[in-house]
Amino acid sequence: MSDMRIGGLATGMDIDKIVGDLMKAERIPLNKMEQEKTWLTWQRDAYRDMNRSFDQLESMASDMKFSDVYNTKTTSSNMADAVIATADPSASGGSYTIKVNKLASSAINTSRSSITNDGETLDLNASLESQQSKFKNGINLTNLNFTLTTYKEDGSSSPIDFTITKDMSMNDIFDKINNSDVGVRAFYDRQADKVVLERTKTGNFNTSGEYLGAEIGFDSGNAEIITNTFGIQNKVDDGNGNWIKAELGGEDAEFTYNNALTINSHENSYKLNGVNFQFNDTTNGKNASISVNNNIDHAVDKITKFVAKYNEIVESANMQVSERKNRDYKPLTDKEKEAMEEKEIELWEAQAKKGLLSNDSAIESTLFSMRNEWYETVETSGAYKRITDIGIDTSSNYRDGGKLLIKESDLRAALKNDSESVYKLFTGEGNTKGITQKLEESLSNGIKQIEAKAGKSTSISNNFRIGKELDTIKDEMRDFENRLNQIEDRYWSQFTAMEKAIQKMNSQSAQLMSQLG
Predict the structure, then answer these.
(1) H or E element: which one contains 161?
(2) What are the C-alpha distances in Å from 4 to residues 45, 167, 274, 497?
(3) Residue 220: strand, helix, or coil
(4) Is 487 exposed, middle or buried (0-12, 13-18, 19+ CB in 10 A)?
(5) What's the confidence (pLDDT) of residue 517?
(6) Cα–chain-centroid distance for residue 37?
(7) Is 42 helix (H, G, I), strand (E, B) or coil?
């Protein structure tokens, strides 16, 4: 661009306007490139929007392959304060009776009496050595180590050794126990002035008879701080000269199923035939009635939402591939937008964006393939082979472009009569593909074809067709801009030369006139 520009001082001409008008004509090819770049950008984004819709439907199709969509169960109990239940999709429907005779409990053992001297208060964070005078039964600082034994599911013992030093506090001891794998919770209750040892899970695991059947085993020989200082015993005299277990709890739950089978459980829950029973209280010798039924509402809701999403995408895709391009409305250039109101730009671009995906073969083939997938026979062991068997059919209005209609009463009847067959129709069986699997394949193929054209947000531009075209146009626009700058410089050079020549002539003429004076 020329540094020296003279604009009409000698001629009185509006050189700026003249050059500007000349450059408008020169810029016409560049404007077309800008419009083409905008169109391709719109088209790329429209393809990606379509792929997002296809991806959403593909995700929903994948979710429709889970059996709990079709076989979710509802349960009810006439004694919900004592027994409640949840059922897996595989659970058989019907009624069950449960009589809870006994709840499972955690084993617990505590100090037999207060552990401190009268008037003393323990500092749980101070060292054992500093607190030794406060313990009623004293503390042997040279023999602080101890072993706790608990029991596994198979009844085998699991002893764990704890190393304790005199500079540790009571809280340090409790933390060691609580953070170990022994499965015991330990703490000190200040109000009762007692130490508590409690199993972290319910049930009776000690079937060996060791420690008189206690779930938390220890003895004075290897746990002096437990038995003497904390005053916790495994066995006590019943007053008749007999040793009995001091520990409380540690019992299994016991319930009777359908008045026929009595079962013990370590926990207050049990699973039978796909039904999970939860025991909150005993039933006082009575039977709790549990009903298990198919949750038809859940299945209808899932299928309806899936079909609705399919119809939404079919409607949108059909509209876009059948829409014709409005050639009277070209994408606006930046210069054109400067002269328009925001609402005018919005209305203009709405017309200019028509036909972005007109007659697109990838979208049309995906729609055609999906329509076929819905109506192909699915040969499984189920009773239903086609979607029309469960109340789903195509709209008779050709303008709907293959949208589906659901007759809810028929769908409910099919789910009530044989939900498993509905499941097999959608998901297939063995090597036989169901409707959802076929739809996933069609959608996946369509998504790949569209990505080849428009890529995705993370794609590098030279890896898809529109990206390559945009790169080419950007390069052409940059080169053309350089040429326009050269042309504008040439125009200014020519007009400046003319101005200088005329100015020189005017100067000479003035000189001549003054001499002829």
Answers:
(1) strand 157-162
(2) 45, 91, 91, 11
(3) coil
(4) middle
(5) 57
(6) 37
(7) helix
Query: What pTM does this model have?
Result: 0.66
Per-residue burial over 152-161, b if 16 or more Cβ lie within 10 Å, else e, is eeeeeeeebe
DSSP summary character for residue 145: -
Chunked in runs of 10, what are the mean pLDDT values of the chain (517 residues)? 50 69 74 88 94 95 91 92 92 92 97 95 96 95 96 95 97 97 97 97 95 92 93 88 91 96 97 95 96 91 96 94 92 88 93 93 94 92 95 84 92 92 94 95 95 89 89 85 79 74 75 72
Name the token pair of 317: 């895709």
What confidence score (pLDDT) does residue 1 get? 47
The neighbouring-strand residues paired with 198 are 108, 185
Chain-centroid distance, C-alpha 461: 30
SS3 category, 333? coil
pLDDT in tens, 297-344: 999 999 999 999 999 999 999 999 999 999 999 999 888 888 899 999
For residue 262, give the H/E element and its range. strand 261-265
Query: pLDDT digits over 96-150, tens only?
Result: 999 999 999 999 999 999 999 999 999 999 999 999 999 999 999 999 999 999 9
Q: What is the pLDDT of residue 5?
A: 53
Residue 91 three-state SS: coil
Query: Cα 46 from chain centroid?
Result: 26
Pair 225, 164: CB distance under 8 Å: yes
DSSP 112: S
DSSP 363-382: HHHHHHHHHHHHHS---SSS
Distance from C-alpha of 410 to C-alpha of 390, rounded to nearest angstrom: 6
pLDDT at 111: 97
Contact predicate 358/324, CB 8 Å: yes
With a CB cutoff of 8 Å and minimum separation 6, the contacts of 296 are 412, 415, 416, 419
- 22-59 as b/e: b if 16+ CB within 10 A: eeeebbeebbebbbbbbbbeebbebbbebbebbeebbe
pLDDT at res. 496: 74
- The pLDDT of residue 2 is 47
Strands 73-77 and 404-406 come out as unpaired
Which residue type is seen at 473? Answer: I
Rounded distance between C-alpha atoms, residue 454 and residue 463, angstroms:
9
In a 3-state reduction of DSSP, which class is residue 336?
helix
Contact 69, 424 (CB under 8 A): no
Give yes or no for a contact between 116 and 131, defined as CB atoms under 8 angstroms apart. no
* C-beta of residue 362 within 8 angstroms of C-beta of residue 450: yes
Could you tell me the CA-to-CA distances from 229 to 115, 132, 417 in Å, in that order? 7, 9, 68
Give the tokens for residue 411: 């769908």
Number of H helices, E strands in the chain: 12, 19
Residue that is written with structure tokens 């083409």 in the block: 36
